[in-house]
Amino acid sequence: PKTLLNLFQISVEPIFLLMFFCFSLVDAAGTNFLLIRTCTMVFGFSEANCTHRISPSVQEIIQPYTARIIMGKVLIQAIFPAILSLFIGSWTDGSKKRKPFIILPLIGLTIDYAIWLIFIYFPIPPVFFLLTVLPYSLSGGSISLFTCAYCYLSDITNEDNRAFRMSVLTISLTIGMLSGYLVSTEMYKTFHKNINFIVFGTSLCCMILTLLYTIFLLPETVITAEEIENSGERNNRKSFFNISHVKNSLAVLLKGRPSNGRLVLLLLIAIIVIDILVFQGESNFRYLSLKASFHWTVEDYNVFSAILSGVAVIISLIGIWLLNKVLGLSCTFTIALVLSTCFISSVLISLSKSP
Questions:
Q1: Which residues form the signal peptide (predicted)?
Q2: Are 183 and 43 in contact (CB under 8 A)?
């Protein structure tokens, strides 16, 4: 049946737009709340010394402890989804069911925000905030979401429009990030009391909407009986935690390919791993770094991040059109150029002495 979603070719894009809206909405707010909770509960400073612009002497004491908690969260977010990814790819290919591992991480993230609200309301020590990432991580995390989203797009597109649809997905999540930082800034200007409760409550509501959209409006990919028969994985579809899924994933990765295809694939994986490593490090510790260097508030950081996201969207659109369409440069050169600019950006931020 014809629907608005079909008419505008909308599928997984709203999921990532809203999800990254929530990520950026709570980004600095969560870290700042963790700093305040560490300051008051762990080191016993007064509320006045731990809010708004924390003095440099206090920051030197509380930031290392907070950074260790954040590092623990990052490790939990990485380890469990990485293990699950060995099973997810093969299982979804065999069953041709993408939605389960799109829905499960969304449920996990929704529970995460609900736990945050509980922890904000009650005086719980900061170390227990590690529990907030467990539901999302144990349900597959971002690895599961991105894997199944790209597989979903591959199922519903063809070679002519696949690259465009994947670009739209990337632009959607970037717009979500930009919107989240802007809305968070306005929230901090408008609400002064219970701001953390409002921010995480808003994120929880958005995730519930995202979950409802995914369950009821996002159709499952369609596969014929003949395609299932040809997949050769009828038995594997019945069990998720089956070692054959790991074997299949590794076999596909390591099988010989023409024109040094296997080497190219391994190099691409290495590039992606390094890129994600840098992204996770920057995104989780950027606020702490800028707060220590420039004594920024949450509002200052959100404005900076919003500008950064906005520039990224504009430059990406213009850059792809200019480099690929106008100048006809290869995708490999474009990727190298993008990574080089990211490197320069990180160096400039690290060397900056003033905003």
A1: none
A2: no
CATH number for 4-351: choose from 1.10.10, 1.20.1250, 3.30.420, 1.10.3470.
1.20.1250
- Region 94-114 average pLDDT: 90
Q: How far is CA 64 from the centre of its chain?
A: 24
The pLDDT value given to residue 5: 57
Alpha-carbon distance of 302 to 187, in angstroms, equals 11
- The separation between CA 80 and the C-alpha centre of its own chain, rounded to angstroms, equals 15
Q: Can you give the length of the chain in residues?
A: 355
End-to-end CA distance of the chain: 53
In terms of Cβ atoms closer than 10 Å to its own Cβ (0-12, 13-18, 19+), residue 353 is exposed
User: How large is the greatest C-alpha to C-alpha distance in the chain, in angstroms?
Assistant: 68
Amino acid at 145: L
Contact 24, 181 (CB under 8 A): yes
- Contact (Cβ atoms closer than 8 angstroms) between residue 130 and residue 69: yes
Rounded-to-10 torsion of CA 268, 273, 274, 277 = 160
- Per-residue model confidence (pLDDT) at position 236: 46
Task: Count CB neighbours of 160 within 10 A.
Answer: 7
What would the mean pLDDT of 118-146 be, rounded to a whole number?
92
Residue 158, burial from CB neighbour count under 10 angstroms (0-12, 13-18, 19+): exposed
Alpha-helical runs (H) found in the chain:
4-7, 13-37, 47-50, 56-95, 100-121, 134-138, 141-156, 162-190, 195-216, 225-231, 243-254, 261-294, 298-320, 331-351
